[in-house]
Write a structure and sequence with these properties.
By secondary structure, the protein is mainly beta. 10% of the residues lie in helices and 49% in strands.
Length: 1516
């Protein structure tokens, strides 16, 4: 129930109906809680009976006391239900009329747009409102009160920070009312604002100085943008930085505790405290507020941006200045971000600059002192230049090397001003002989790198040299002396006292094997040689002495090594009072201890009678190529020792590939079986002595075997293994015997099986065991003496391994040694089933051993190498593989197996191979073969003596070019032998050690750790053109065939001959005037490093020199007559005159005419260019012949010879004398002694000046064109239009073409005739002077204005070169435009027109002729009418009667110009004749024309031609 708008103190009621929807009557109780505002119209808590399907009303009364909302409830209860009816009373409401949705227009990012709403309270109560929204929207005002019916302005703002669509809601809440939501919609977009560049790079700037550059922000949008330069790319980064700074401002717990303690202390002492904690908190809040208020603008100590913020108008630019001020000499980089309204993301700007410290350079980085004598002072200087813009303090850093300490620099420190030069004086006093190259450093304050000066040179002293490059002892044995011989030669002019020593050699004498074998009791057999100091292993004989000048000394060098190592020592030669190590010789050797073997490993002496000496022999085998030293280590005897042994010759030397014997005497002291260890020492390998086991048996019986137990131990199956024993007969009678195997006779073989033992003798017996299966084989040997069983003794053997036999060693470890990476490693094996059972084999290769996987240890992995492998990274898959992995082998069957491995990188590989087999018909797999494959993959590597070789040869005139050699040493630094393939192109060659060329395609084999000595040969005679040349080639060394590793050595070669540079190589004199000389010069430069002697000559063969006579007619006249004369210059300087007629016979064919016209020097007029006539005899005078002597006379050279020093330049003058109509060519040769011959082509020609002029006369002529006639009304006027006539006051143009028809360039000038200077008119020529090249044309422009009507004529003089002037005439006739009428002309009353008739003397008479003319004009019916504007055009030139035809019109015009009869003047003052009118106008214009001419001539300096308006003023 809802009561609405009920006034205060007014009762209102509402009725609610209670309906019984059941099928029987119900008793309903209606009740309401007591309330002063709500009451029931019926009694409270009264039950009502409601029949089925019927309703009962209940009235509720409501009386409010004030205008507000109320609530209550009505409760209805029946026997089965409980119904609560809520009651609400709604008072007055405040309603604000906001729109349901507010849409904003598209707005640029980071810009604001607003919408203002007029909101009215349409409710019936004042509204206390609250307005709120979310970013990017805002609303103002946020709170307030709006009365009933009042209005207010609400401004909703939209300030987007990101581009795209934005939506939100405006929440409008009123006190006591429900809130309403208004949808807000807006869209933001990026506008076109950008930086003109994203990278600003400032030029290098000196330290502590500044430099700047500019960039621009372009605003291509329609908004005003505000920008700020920020230090962070986004606002999130700024907030993160602010949080970090705030966290740093937060006082630590220690500070808080200290403040608390001080407050407590002050409170305890003074009774009050300052509350420092509150002060700290306030300070923290203040600092935090400052951090939060920080705009985080760009800030940097090196880069500065101006301005930091500002505004840019629409379609404008903002200039940004970036200043760079470095503090250190290094590169600086920084990022700045432009936060600009209209763009969502900040625009990045990368700032980059490089600080430059003092820039100090040397005038030369390298100073080559050349060759300097020892102990001779030498001075030089070098300059330090400060190229920078700041002062450069420098300090010399003293050198710590021995040679560097010999240099002194002055000054050692100072300051160099910008642009200044500091000269450093250097003094050097060499005390050490040899080549040096030292680097000296000058530290410059503020510069990260010092200035480095490299000084190199060579200090020469006494010269000594050995006859060999090195002494290579090769492989030597420990303790054995080896001797090599060399020769030391003194090439100096003085005797030298020398002393030899070996670098890194000791002082204590070495022990030789010959000294060691003298005593077997020496402790060194057990403990090795003990040296107090390093042993002296090298001895020289003699070690010192004096060598006479140009003498020599043979030296023996003996090496007795007591160290197992590879030797690389230097034999140094020290000279008294000169220096140490003046000469040296490399000595190389490799010391080894040969591996000796002792045989037998077990020495059995059975049935030894007590204390009876038995002698046996031990064998020492040496399978190496070096001798060895051995010695029996004496026995340490004790009283209870069961066996004594010794040797009469315990020590000795075993030679290579031989065997030595050690006699051994054994005495058994006690009964029974004894085992004694006998040790044999090897000199140099005391840690690994050789040893055997001595087995003996002491007894007293007569016939007995020795030993009684024959133990084979663990022996491989299918492999025979033998053991020996001896049958002894101690009796005095010979005894027969027989032996047999008790159980498995097929596994054991006895030799001999039977025989006779002599009295007190012995018979050796051998038992060979060949086991056919694995397991224990125990058996017995039955010994029969005679026919009775004498004794039985046991055989024991244990079969191990498998019956699968591999033809090559495979187990327990297969060491493949070193293999090259990137090349396959392949091994092939054959497997045979040698047993009696079927085998199915399963092969598996793994990276890790099974023991490692199971966490167990095996003996195979207990070695140090295995430990190293276990520590290396595990490989994902094995390197090696076996094919096939599955095999079925029947007894006696064989199969091939391939083991293959490949590694792309160098590494040590240890793979584990396991073979499991199913034997026979069983199903259990049994491990039968297990092996370790060890291999080290390596890259081929070599060590070369140099990576670059340079050859230089200087060929002087007296030198002979020979091959140049430089040694090349190639050392094999890998662990496998190499077959080197060396490829090299000419002019270089690879040679053997004997300097013989290495055959193409032949490899050079270099063993492991061995060195190959070769030579690089350079052939300077490869090019024999005597020109200096340089070449660069690459020596490619392919180390292993198929392997990509290739070493390269760069080879440079240069050969210098005496050479010149001559510029230019071709000298063209062109065509000169006949009889004149032309001088040209060329420059010669000595580009060699030694003086060059040269001389000039002319090549005398006919192909190089030639003299050509070019003979043509001099000129053609414009209009040649029937007969014309041509003068020809004959080579013999004779003149002849030829006569030709143009009609009778042609002189040449058209083809010949065309050829002649195209040749230089020929002049053909335009009207004769297609058809020319030359007499037949003229062709013989145009020819070319070889005249070397005449050509040489035409050219001359100065100087003809001389000597040029290196780098010197010289000018050479060449003179050409021109002869008439000749073309000369010669080849000048510059011959260099010992060098090439340079060719310079010289060409020149001589000719006479000739030209053509077309036309020579300019005839302006007189031409008339169209005419029109008309008769307006009764007045007949005749007009004649003649546009081609020369009007007296207009500028006219004509042209004359001047062509150079000779081969010589000439000058020309044109001048007007002096007699025409005072004639009226303006006549100009352009140009008036110039020069004309051969074959070129010049157009002469004639511009003229006659000024006065009538005939005119002018003459010009054209002078070409030294020829006589030629005249050019300009003729013509000028007219003036006018209109005349055929009516009488009244001139009375005009003084201007009255005077001319008097001067003309015109009589006053009227002729009948004029009458008839007027009558015809008035009576003619056929006249042509012209338009009115035609009467005023200035093109109307001459008048004539309308009745005349064009033909008669021309005649009339001629009469107007030529008739001389005087016209008559009527007494009334009327002029009746047209000619009179014309003459009168001429006289009137003459005076004005002369005045105008003066004006025109005054305008000429400014304007080349008269102004048109000025010319037209003559018509007025």
């Amino acid at each position: 129930m809802v009561f609405q708008n009920v006034p205060a103190h007014v009762t209102s009621d509402m009725v609610v109906s209670i309906t019984n929807k059941g099928k029987r009557s119900q008793l309903v109780k209606v009740s309401m809680a007591s309330s002063p505002y709500f009451q029931l119209d019926c009694p409270n808590d009264v039950c009502h009976i409601v029949p089925a399907g019927m309703s009962t009303p209940v009235r509720v009364l409501f009386t409010p006391k004030e205008n507000k909302d109320y609530s209550h409830e009505l409760v209805c209860m029946s026997g089965s239900e409980w119904i609560v009816v809520p009651i609400r009373a709604i008072a007055a409401r405040a309603i604000l009329d906001f729109p349901d949705q507010l849409d904003f227009p598209v707005c640029p990012v980071k810009c604001s747009t607003q919408k203002t709403l007029l909101v009215r309270n349409v409710g019936n109560r004042a509204a206390r409102y609250q307005l709120s929204t979310q970013s990017p929207f805002s609303v103002v005002p946020a709170t307030g009160i709006l009365g009933v019916g009042d209005t207010m302005q609400v401004t909703v703002g939209f300030h987007p920070l990101t581009a795209g669509d934005h939506s939100g809601s405006l929440v409008v809440g009123c006190t006591g009312e429900e809130s309403i939501h208004i949808n807000l919609q807006g869209k933001a977009e990026d506008v076109n604002i950008e930086l003109n560049t994203n990278l600003v790079k400032v030029e290098k700037t000196s330290v502590n100085m500044s430099n700047h550059t500019t960039m621009f922000i372009k605003n291509n949008s329609n908004i005003t943008a505000h920008f700020q330069w920020k230090a962070f790319p986004t606002e999130e980064h700024e907030n993160e930085e602010k949080r970090r700074q705030c966290s740093l401002l937060q006082p630590s717990a220690k500070v808080w505790l200290e403040a608390y303690r001080k407050d407590k202390k002050m409170e305890k002492e003074k009774g009050f405290c300052e509350n420092r904690a509150l002060l700290l908190s306030n300070k923290y809040e203040q600092d935090k507020a400052k951090v939060q208020a920080d705009p985080m603008l760009f800030s940097n100590d090196i880069f500065f941006i101006e301005p930091m913020e500002g505004e840019i108008g629409p379609h404008c630019l903002a200039e940004i200045k970036v200043t760079f001020k470095p503090t250190e000499p290094r590169e600086y980089r920084c990022m700045a971000y432009c936060n600009i309204s209209g763009r969502e993301s900040r625009l990045p700007l990368c700032l980059r600059g490089e600080g430059q410290g003092p820039l100090v350079e040397l005038c030369s980085d390298t100073l080559n002192l050349g060759s300097i004598s020892v102990n001779t002072p030498h001075n030089c200087e070098v300059k330090l230049i400060n190229q920078g813009a700041i002062d450069a303090p420098f300090t010399y850093i003293p050198s710590t090397t021995h040679v560097g300490s010999c240099f002194k620099f002055a000054p050692e420190e100072g300051i160099i001003a910008p642009g200044e030069i500091q000269t450093i004086q250097i003094s050097f006093n060499a005390t050490v002989v040899g080549c040096f190259e030292e680097q000296f450093q000058f530290s410059v304050a503020g510069s990260p790198t010092p200035v480095i000066l490299t000084i190199k040179g060579r200090v020469t002293g006494p010269t000594l040299h050995f006859d060999v490059d090195e002494l290579d002892f090769g492989d030597i044995s420990f303790g054995f002396p080896f001797t090599k011989t060399c020769r030391l030669t003194n090439t100096s002019p003085e005797p030298l006292t020398f002393k030899l020593r070996v670098s890194d050699d000791g002082t204590q004498p070495a022990v030789s094997s010959f000294d060691q074998i003298r005593s077997d009791s020496d402790p060194s057999w057990r403990k090795g040689i003990h040296f107090v100091v390093e042993p002296r292993e090298f001895t020289m004989n003699p070690s010192q002495g004096t060598i006479l000048p140009q003498g020599h000394q043979d030296i023996e060098v003996t090496l007795c090594s007591n160290t197992v190592m590879e030797f690389c020592r230097k034999l140094l030669v020290d000279l008294e009072e000169i220096g140490e190590g003046v000469a040296s010789l490399i000595m190389q050797a490799r010391c080894f201890v040969p591996k000796l073997q002792v045989y037998p490993p077990i020495l059995c002496i059975d049935d030894c009678r007590l204390k009876v000496p038995f002698e046996r022999t031990l064998f020492i085998t040496n399978n190496t190529h070096l001798p060895g030293c051995y010695g029996l280590i004496p026995q340490k005897r004790k009283e209870d020792s069961p066996v004594f042994y010794s040797s009469p010759k315990p020590c000795g030397i075993v030679q290579p590939h031989s065997t030595a014997e050690i006699p051994l005497v054994v005495k058994v002291q006690t009964l029974g079986k004894h085992r004694t260890r006998v040790r044999i020492g090897v000199f140099g390998d005391e840690r690994n002595p050789l040893g055997i086991q001595l087995q003996s048996y002491g007894k007293l019986s007569e016939i007995y075997p020795s030993p009684r137990l024959i133990e084979f131990g663990m022996i491989p199956v299918l492999q025979p293994n033998s053991q020996s024993f001896t049958l002894f007969n101690e009796g005095f009678l010979p005894r027969g015997f027989r032996m047999e195997i008790a159980c498995k006779p097929h596994c054991y073989v006895i030799e001999p099986r039977e025989g006779v033992i002599p009295a007190r003798g012995a018979v050796p017996v051998t038992v060979t065991a060949t086991l056919d299966d694995t397991g224990v084989f125990d058996d017995a040997i039955r010994l029969f003496i005679g026919n009775s069983l004498g004794s039985t003794f046991m055989l024991q053997a244990l079969g191990t391994g498998t019956t699968i036999v591999i033809d090559k060693p495979f187990t327990p470890e297969l060491n493949l040694g070193y293999q090259f990476s990137l090349l396959p490693c392949i091994r092939r094996f054959k497997l045979t089933n040698g047993g009696h059972h079927f085998h199915r084999l399963f092969w598996k290769v793994e990276c890790n051993s099974p023991a490692e996987e199971e966490g167990q240890s095996t003996s195979a992995l207990s070695s140090p190498k295995a430990k190293d492998d276990s520590q290396s990274p595990k490989r994902p898959c094995p390197v090696f593989g076996l094919e096939p992995p599955l095999m079925d082998l029947q007894p006696g069957e064989s199969v091939d197996m391939v083991l293959q491995g490949f590694s792309p990188v160098p590494q040590v590989v240890r793979d584990y191979v396991r073979c499991e087999a199913v034997i026979g018909t069983g199903s259990v797999m049994k491990k039968i073969i297990e092996t370790i494959i060890t291999c080290e993959f390596i890259d081929p590597s070599i060590e070369v003596s140099a990576r670059q070789f340079s050859f230089r040869a200087e060929k002087k005139p007296s030198d002979v070019l020979t091959l140049h050699y430089q040694p090349l040493t190639i050392k094999n630094t890998c662990s496998l032998p190499l077959d080197l393939m060396l490829s090299l192109e000419r002019p270089f060659h690879v040679c053997h050690a004997n300097q013989q060329p290495l055959p193409d395609g032949q490899p050079v084999t270099v063993d492991v750790k061995q060195t190959c000595h070769l030579y690089i040969a350079f052939d300077p005679a490869y090019k024999l053109d005597f020109h200096s040349w340089k070449v660069k080639k690459v020596l490619k060394i392919e180390m292993v065939r198929g392997h990509p590793s290739v070493e390269q050595i760069t080879l440079w070669g240069e050969v210098h001959f005496p050479n010149l540079q001559i510029q230019p190589s071709t000298l063209e004199f062109g065509c000169v005037m006949a009889g004149t000389r032309e001088v040209r010069s060329l420059e010669m430069t000595n580009c060699s490093s030694f003086p060059v002697k040269y001389h000039w000559a002319f090549q005398t063969d006919s192909q190089a020199n030639g003299l050509t006579y070019e003979l043509h007619p001099l000129k053609f006249k414009p209009e040649p007559p029937k007969g014309m004369s041509i003068y020809v210059d004959h080579p013999a300087t004779q003149w002849r005159r030829f006569k030709m007629r143009t009609v009778e016979e042609p002189a040449t064919t058209p083809e010949e005419s065309r050829d002649l016209a195209q040749s230089p020097g020929a002049e053909v007029p335009p009207h004769t260019r297609e058809k020319r006539y030359i007499p037949p005899g003229l062709r013989q005078f145009r020819y070319s012949m070889d005249l070397p002597h005449k050509v040489v006379k035409a050219f001359s050279i100065l100087p003809l010879s001389g000597v040029l020093q290196p780098g010197e330049r010289q000018q050479v003058s060449l003179t050409f004398s021109g002869r008439l109509n000749t073309i000369a060519g010669v080849r000048a040769l510059c011959c260099v002694e010992g060098g090439p011959t340079y060719k310079v082509e010289l060409t020149g020609g001589g000719s006479r000046v000739s030209y053509s002029l077309s036309p020579r006369k300019i005839d302006c002529g007189l031409q008339l064109k169209a005419h029109r006639y008309f008769q307006p009304l009764a007045l007949s006027v005749l007009l004649c239009v003649t546009p081609l006539l020369h009007i007296f006051n207009e500028i006219h143009h004509s042209t004359v073409t001047l062509e150079n028809t000779c081969n010589v360039k000439f000058n020309w000038v044109i001048n007007p005739s002096t007699a025409d200077r005072h004639l009226p008119g303006v006549f100009l020529v352009n140009p008036v002077i110039g020069s004309l090249a051969p074959g070129k044309k010049q157009v002469l422009n004639f511009s003229y204005m006659p000024v006065l009507p009538g005939a005119f004529s002018r003459t010009y003089q054209l002078k070409v070169g030294d020829l006589n002037p030629e005249s050019i005439s300009l003729k013509g006739e000028a007219f003036f435009p006018m209109i005349t009428v055929n009516l009488p002309w009244n001139i009375n009353g005009s003084e201007k027109y009255e005077e001319p008739p008097k001067q003309l003397g015109i009589q006053q008479q009227y002729t009948q002729r004029n009458k008839s003319v007027v009558g015809k004009n008035t009576e003619s019916p056929n006249t042509e009418t012209l338009k009115s504007q035609t009467l005023m055009t200035p093109t109307l030139k001459i008048q004539a009667p309308a009745t005349q035809t064009p033909k008669t019109l021309t005649m009339t015009t001629q009469n107007l110009k030529t008739q001389n009869q005087k016209p008559c003047l009527l007494g009334s003052g009327i002029v009746p004749d047209n000619q009179v009118q014309v003459e009168m106008v001429k006289m009137l214009m003459e005076k004005a024309a002369l005045e105008l001419q003066q004006k025109l001539t005054s305008h000429l300096p400014k304007n080349r031609f008269p102004d048109k308006q000025l010319c037209q003023s003559l018509l007025k």
